[in-house]
Write a structure and sequence with these properties.
This protein has about 150 residues and is an alpha/beta fold. It is built from 5 helices and 9 strands. The strands form 3 sheets. It has a 5-stranded mixed β-sheet. It has a two-stranded antiparallel sheet with strand order 1-2.
Length: about 150
Amino acid sequence: MLSTGFAAPNFSLPDQNGIIHTLDEFRGKKVILYFYPKDNTAGCTKQACGFGERFDQFKNLNAVVIGVSKDSVKSHKNFEMKYNLPFLLLSDPERTCIEAYDVWKEKKNYGKITMGVVRTTYLIDEDGVIIYASDKVKAAENPEQMLEMLK
């Protein structure tokens, strides 16, 4: 995980519609950049829907929400449509952004060790500096927690 106080790495990734986005295009706004393991899984769905339910509140606080996973553009589009998600879902199958933000880690699941995305949330200020970082994210609580941090 990256530390607070440092410049957030830029990225160039396609969203659920295939449109390329960079971090630089969000200068002047706070960015909630959250990394999650997989579309349509229980925890990831709770987290995404929580951000979706609070979307207008984030917008009113001059913040954008961006979810990132290894899933394909098509998978993200299906996830967006199924749950009516109003924010960007960036596709990173090559793991360039995932690795730049140091969220590709060894994970243990039922005694088996695998590599995967560790659920992590970053808050990036208007100048592109990381002001909050956590890899101890509880999916269902994360959206409300981030909303409170912005207030």
